[in-house]
Each structure stands twice: as structure tokens, then as C-alpha cells.
Automatic annotation (TrEMBL):
<protein>
    <recommendedName>
        <fullName>UvrD-like helicase ATP-binding domain-containing protein</fullName>
    </recommendedName>
</protein>
<dbReference type="GO" id="GO:0000725">
    <property type="term" value="P:recombinational repair"/>
</dbReference>
<dbReference type="InterPro" id="IPR000212">
    <property type="entry name" value="DNA_helicase_UvrD/REP"/>
</dbReference>
<dbReference type="InterPro" id="IPR027417">
    <property type="entry name" value="P-loop_NTPase"/>
</dbReference>
<dbReference type="GO" id="GO:0005829">
    <property type="term" value="C:cytosol"/>
</dbReference>
<keyword id="KW-0547">Nucleotide-binding</keyword>
<keyword id="KW-0378">Hydrolase</keyword>
<dbReference type="GO" id="GO:0043138">
    <property type="term" value="F:3'-5' DNA helicase activity"/>
</dbReference>
<dbReference type="GO" id="GO:0003677">
    <property type="term" value="F:DNA binding"/>
</dbReference>
<feature type="binding site">
    <location>
        <begin position="196"/>
        <end position="203"/>
    </location>
    <ligand>
        <name>ATP</name>
    </ligand>
</feature>
<keyword id="KW-0067">ATP-binding</keyword>
<dbReference type="GO" id="GO:0005524">
    <property type="term" value="F:ATP binding"/>
</dbReference>
<dbReference type="GO" id="GO:0016787">
    <property type="term" value="F:hydrolase activity"/>
</dbReference>
<dbReference type="Pfam" id="PF00580">
    <property type="entry name" value="UvrD-helicase"/>
</dbReference>
<keyword id="KW-0347">Helicase</keyword>
<feature type="domain" description="UvrD-like helicase ATP-binding">
    <location>
        <begin position="175"/>
        <end position="528"/>
    </location>
</feature>
<dbReference type="InterPro" id="IPR014016">
    <property type="entry name" value="UvrD-like_ATP-bd"/>
</dbReference>
Length: 689
């Protein structure tokens, strides 16, 4: 279904339109001048490093000013009694430095998003603009002073929501709604968890929050950085353009697998094993395995310092080791904790400094360099290697999973014997490199690496589809958070991993922010009401207690249930019809059926390709494995045999809920078998009753 961008009742001769077009031309010209000025700045700094930094800063600035002719410099305007502002994606100034457009993130722009007739926030009028291909084609006024507001029912908002989808996700900066804006503009110090039904704009809100925080706390976050964590490469590819379009190019985007890629993953675990490896008790097992490798000194050590030898007794050595081990294992504050590798270095230094004190007591005065040399001496190194051995993270996990006795020592009282047996590799690998690591193992290795050395942390982390993270994955994300704050986005009804919890507390605890407030979003922007009502029938079983989303619009005819005798013919026919329309089509089926569905559609002469997790670009008609569709959306969705999607995995009904909520315009459900009971049409007698 295609609709032109809204052009409310305005004509070319409308003086308002004429004046606004002139302002648009002015803004475009000023932006051009700003770009020229940024391009003219020379990169010559005092030295090569400074020149490079200047060059990088200039490239960033140019990227931020990049002008896409399809993206107009402003999209709205606020009129107060004394002044009016045009609101756009970034500040635009004229040659005199006066504002031509103000950035949507500036405090002055807030009333554009928040003002209502009941609370005009100083505005007399709000104006929204409609564009087609960069041309200003119309506008919509709400005279707040006269009690008018669109209450989320603006024609321009509707046009934006219904526009055909093609290519990657776009920003929603022109139409952010008040409840979304509250989350976007929450302070940097506040961690937030958004529990939002499908299509309520969680991903959009999280990305706009990142852009808002980078604007508002640029200097602080430029140092510490912002990270966006998404579920898979296909999803990251889908969202990767949103932040650059908002002028933010310096945000890292990664999956948990990317963050924990310290070993090469070559295998998958059975669900029961994956659940256990994701259990927070594994952190305790690993902690014991690592710190339990430190042994008690039995002999004294001779330390050579500035030509003399000093003997340190086993009792004193034991005290050094105990004190350092305590600093590594009993600190409540993660920021203060002593990491294992640093502990090893400190132990060596403790010995050298003790020798120095002995020398000083005898009247000597060794230099720092001599003390450091003593810490690096062969005797001290040999002592540390024996008592506080160097550890390789992958080696430790490999040893633990290969050696039943070692595992039992670390897991005693934490895991049952049956659980230990589940973890043990039946055939230990010949070497650490040869191990058939799974994604859950990679997270364990990362946990150990995080105990060995402090992981660099970001100032803010946005975690999307967070309902699917295991507690151990949450810890991996938390390690990247340092002292910063979090935006956690997710939907418990879309929780498809075998370890998914029924409430947010486990996830938020794992992420290290148990006190985070959970805020709901319930207005669905993506899916038409008819389709959403259908999918919501699954809610009582998959997420009892969660409020159902309400759709912002209804589209009669958007849902078609088609029972068929054989799938092949009707599938090719339906997809053929949709392929001829504007926008994207996703044909979603159980993963195991993807190859057959692709073959069948190609045999029918249709140009389709399977969506894969390598981040490659989706085609206009994609065959999508059900496990890869999370977070994505298509104009038209064809679901092939829902019962097979449900049967494919333990949380298959949750998966089906995800699949049924991806359509912007239409959903066709093709089924040769029965529909899952909750989705079956009421029997005729019930229907009449
Ligand atoms: N205020 C808005 N104005 C216009 N479009 C919006 C708005 N909010 C959300 N949308 C659109 O609705 C769609 C769904 O948004 P998004 O993907 O962020 O939702 P979500 O809650 O993350 O969904 P899901 O959980 O189903 O993946 C997107 O196309 C987004 O652009």
C-alpha cells in the first residue's frame, strides 16, 4: 500500500508555504556555507598526532554536516508570543551566527515534542511540515492557544508511520511522541528499562536517546563512548543508519557475540547446557577456579636489590598473598576490585618494596628503578609464577570443562553433580585452540578475562532485545558499562531464548543496575490494529499479566488467514502479487524450511533471497528464518505454516508472536496444517453466540 507523503490542504500560492520554502532555501544555503567552512579548516597541528586528531575531528564535523537532499534541514516550528524557531536534525546558523534552525535535542526544542493544548509550555502554535523528495509540500498547524492539538493523531504522523518501508530503519525525529520523548530526554545519570510491546518504538527511542545524550553530554561521552548492543548482525545492519542520520557517527554497535569474541565459536550447545552456562552461578564457579589457583607460599624467597640479597620469610609472603587475594575477591565495589593480573604485578612489587624497606632500615637508599628491577628479577618472577600463576582466560575455561576433578573443586556446593556432568566435555580437545567453543563458552571466557583485567567501559550502553540475554551475557554487557548508565529495551512477550525470565529483575541485576525503573510503552506504531489483535491472542499464554499494545491505526483487510491444501501454489501466488507492490516483503518460515521456500519461489520465477546473519543487505522480497526476524519490519509479511514455527523450539509460541508483529501494512498467514489453538477462528456456534 503506498501513500505519498502527506500534503495537507495547502496550495502553491499559500503565503505561509511560500515563506516557509524561502526559509528552507535559506537553511540549505547556510548549511552549505557551514560545510564549506568546516572543509576549509586546515589540519596542521603542532605535530603529526595533533594534525591527525584535527583531521579526524574535521571529518566528524563534515560527516555531521553532511547534507542529504532527501533529508530537509527542518521538520517543525514552534511559535511563542515573542519568538519562533524552526526545529531540525542539527543546528544551522547564518553567517552572522544567528540560529536559522535549532537542533531537536536543544532544550528549546522540547516544547515541540511535549506541548499540548492542556499544557502549551509557552507555545502559541506548533507547525509540522510535510516533504516529498526534499520539497516542502505542506504543513499542519496546531494552535495550542486556541485549544487545538492533534493528540498523536496528526496526518503527518500517520503518513510517516504508513510510508512504505524499504532499506534500513529511519529516524523518527520529526514525530517522536511525548511518552517516547520522556525516555529520550531522561538524564544521563538515569538508567532506564523500557518494557514495550511490538512496534512501540523501543529501538527508535533507544537510538534517539543515544543521540540526545551525545549532544547534551558531548564532552563527557566523547571520552567514554556510547555502545549499542543488538541481537544479531542483520538487526545491526537494519539500524546502522539511524545514528549517522542524526549526526552521530561515533557510536559503537555490536552483538554480545562481537563483544565476547575472544575465542572462535564453532559449535552450539544443547539448550539445557546453554541455560546452565548462562546461569549466574557460573560466575562463582569461574571466580573460584581462577582465585583457587593461587597457592600458599611454603618457602622463603631471596630478593636481590641493588647488589644485596634479602630473605623474605614464608609467613610474610603468605600475608602479602592473602591481602592481595582479599582485595581481588571480597570487594563489594566493582570499580575498586583488584584484578587478578594486577594482583600478580602487585605481589611482585610487594616483595621488592619489602626488600627496599629492609635496605632502608640498614641505611641504604635504593632508587625506584632499582626497586622495579628487583620486582622483575628471576627469583621474584619464579615465586609469582609458582604461587600466583599467569592465567589465560580461554585456557582456564578449557581446563575446567575438560577436567572433572578441577570442575568439581570449583563447583562444589554451587552446581549439582548432574549439572557438572552436563558441563563437562565428553572428548577434551587436544589444545585450547582446537576446542569447539560455543557462544555460551565465549561468554564464560569473557567473564574470566574480565576478572584478569579490567574491561574498558562505555559512558552509556543501549541494550536492545534485552529480554533474550542470559545472566552471564548481562554480566558481559555490564563489564562494558564502567560507571555509566544504561538504556535497556525489550519485551518479555518476545523472549525466545531458553533462559528468558518472566520479569525484568534478573536481567537488570545481571546488568548491574537492579534498581532501574521499568517504563512501559504500549502504543504500537508499526502493526495495524487487526494484525496486532490477532497476535495479542497469544499473550495470555506467553506473557500473562503484560498489558497488550494498542495500535495507533486500523487497516481493514490488513490480516488474511489462508488455509490451503498445499502450500506451493498459493505461496508463489501471494508473494508474486506482493512483489509487484511498493515496499518490502518478508516471507517468514521455520528456519528448517528456508531452503525449500526459497527454491519454491525461485522455481515460480520470483527474485527472492534468504536473509542471513552475516549483515548482508536484505533484498526487496526476503525469505526470513523465524529466528532472524526479531527487531525487523516489512511492509508485507507472509507467514508460512505457523505451527512449524511453534514446533521448532521450546519457546516457539513466543517466536510466533515476534513473527506475527513484523508487518506495517499487511499480514498473510498461509497454513496447510492447523493454526495453533489460540489463533484458530472461533467455531461457528461460538461465533454466533
Ligand atoms: N513516534 C513515531 N513516529 C513515527 N514512527 C514511529 C514512531 N515510533 C515508532 N515508529 C515506527 O514504528 C516502527 C517500530 O519501531 P521500533 O522498531 O523502534 O519498535 P520496537 O518497539 O523496537 O519493536 P519490536 O519490539 O517489535 O522490535 C518503526 O518503523 C518506527 O520508525
Amino acid at each position: 500500500m503506498s501513500r505519498p507523503p502527506a500534503a495537507p490542504e495547502t496550495t502553491a500560492a499559500d503565503p505561509v508555504l511560500t515563506a516557509e520554502r524561502a526559509h528552507l532555501a535559506l537553511a540549505a544555503a547556510c548549511l552549505g556555507q557551514m560545510r564549506t567552512a568546516a572543509g576549509a579548516v586546515t589540519d596542521a597541528g603542532v605535530d603529526a598526532w595533533a594534525s591527525e586528531r584535527l583531521g579526524a575531528a574535521r571529518a566528524e564535523r563534515l560527516a555531521a554536516l553532511a547534507h542529504d537532499p532527501g533529508v530537509p534541514p527542518f521538520f517543525g516550528r514552534t511559535d511563542a508570543e515573542a519568538e519562533s524557531f524552526h526545529v531540525g536534525r542539527r543546528h544551522v546558523r547564518d553567517a552572522a551566527g544567528d540560529a536559522v534552525v535549532i537542533d531537536w535535542r536543544a532544550p528549546m526544542s522540547r516544547p515541540f515534542y511535549q506541548a499540548s493544548a492542556a499544557d502549551p509550555q509557552g507555545l502559541v502554535r506548533r507547525r509540522r511540515f510535510g516533504f516529498a523528495g526534499g520539497e516542502l509540500t505542506g504543513y499542519e498547524d496546531e494552535v495550542l492557544a486556541a485549544g487545538e492539538d492533534s493528540l498523536g493523531d496528526s496526518a503527518l504522523l500517520r503518513a510517516e508511520i504508513e510510508r512504505p518501508r524499504s532499506g534500513p530503519m529511519r529516524d523518527i525525529v520529526a514525530t517522536i511522541q511525548p511518552d517516547q520523548d520522556d525516555i529520550v530526554r531522561a538524564p544521563l545519570t538515569e538508567s532506564i528499562c523500557v518494557q514495550g510491546a511490538p512496534g512501540t518504538g523501543k529501538t527508535a527511542v533507544g537510538l534517539h536517546r543515544a543521540a540526545y545524550l551525545l549532544y547534551t553530554h558531548g564532552e563527557q561521552l566523547a571520552r567514554t563512548g556510547v555502545l549499542v548492543v543488538g541481537p544479531n548482525r542483520a538487526f545491526l545492519r537494519y539500524i546502522e543508519q539511524v545514528l549517522p542520520a542524526l549526526g552521530e557517527v561515533e557510536v559503537d554497535q555490536a552483538t554480545v557475540a562481537d563483544l565476547t569474541a575472544r575465542v572462535t565459536v564453532r559449535a552450539d550447545d544443547d539448550p539445557a547446557v546453554a541455560v546452565l552456562k548462562g546461569d549466574p552461578r557460573m560466575a562463582e564457579v569461574l571466580r573460584r577456579a581462577l582465585w583457587g589457583g593461587i597457592s600458599k607460599p611454603v618457602d622463603g624467597v631471596q630478593v636481590t636489590l641493588a647488589g644485596r640479597r634479602y630473605r623474605i620469610s614464608p609467613e610474610r609472603l603468605k600475608r602479602f598473598v592473602d591481602d592481595l587475594r582479599r582485595a581481588g575477591t571480597s570487594s563489594v565495589d566493582d570499580q575498586q576490585v583488584l584484578h587478578y593480573a594486577a594482583g600478580r604485578e602487585r605481589l611482585a612489587m610487594s616483595l621488592a618494596e619489602y626488600a627496599r624497606r629492609l635496605k632502608e632500615a640498614g641505611g641504604g637508599s635504593p632508587s625506584d628503578a632499582e626497586t622495579r628491577r628487583a620486582a622483575r628479577s628471576a627469583e621474584v618472577r619464579a615465586f609469582c609464577d609458582a604461587v600466583w600463576p599467569a592465567v589465560d582466560a580461554a585456557g582456564l575455561v578449557c581446563g575446567l570443562l575438560s577436567d572433572g576433578e578441577r570442575l568439581a573443586r570449583a563447583a562444589r556446593g554451587v552446581l549439582t553433580e548432574e549439572e557438572q556432568a552436563l558441563l563437562r566435555w565428553s572428548a577434551p580437545p587436544r589444545s585450547v585452540r582446537a576446542a569447539r567453543w560455543t557462544p555460551a563458552d565465549a561468554v564464560l571466557v569473557d567473564e574470566v578475562a574480565g576478572m584478569l583485567e579490567r574491561t574498558a567501559g562505555y559512558g552509556h550502553v543501549v541494550v536492545d532485545e534485552a529480554q533474550d540475554l542470559s545472566p552471564m551475557q548481562c554480566r558481559a554487557v555490564a563489564r562494558r558499562l564502567a560507571a555509566g548508565s544504561l538504556t535497556v529495551l525489550g519485551d518479555l512477550a518476545q523472549a525466545t531464548s531458553p533462559w528468558s525470565a518472566a520479569d525484568w529483575s534478573q536481567t537488570l541485576t545481571g546488568l548491574g543496575r537492579p534498581d532501574t525503573t521499568v517504563r512501559p510503552l504500549t502504543r504500537g506504531y508499526r502493526v495495524p490494529g487487526e494484525v496486532l489483535d490477532f497476535a495479542n491472542r497469544l499473550l495470555p499464554r506467553i506473557a500473562p499479566g503484560l498489558p497488550a499494545a494498542t495500535a495507533v491505526r486500523r487497516e481493514p483487510g490488513s490480516l488474511q488467514l489462508r488455509p490451503v491444501a498445499l502450500l506451493a501454489g498459493p505461496l508463489a501466488e501471494v508473494v508474486g502479487e506482493l512483489a509487484a507492490t511498493e515496499g518490502s516483503t518478508g516471507v517468514v518460515c521455520a528456519d528448517a524450511a528456508v531452503a525449500d521456500v526459497v527454491g519454491l519461489l525461485r522455481t515460480a520465477g520470483l527474485d527472492v533471497a534468504a536473509l542471513s546473519d552475516d549483515g548482508s543487505e536484505p533484498t526487496r522480497v526476503s525469505v526470513v528464518p523465524a529466528t532472524l526476524v526479531k527487531g525487523l519490519e516489512f511492509d508485507h509479511v507472509v507467514v508460512v505454516e505457523p505451527a512449524a514455527i511453534v514446533a521448532a523450539e521450546p519457546r516457539g509460541l513466543h517466536r510466533l508472536y515476534v513473527v506475527l508483529t513484523r508487518a506495517v501494512s499487511s499480514l498473510v498467514v498461509l497454513h496447510a496444517g492447523d493454526l495453533p489453538d489460540l489463533l484458530q477462528p472461533p467455531a461457528p456456534s461460538q461465533a454466533q453466540a
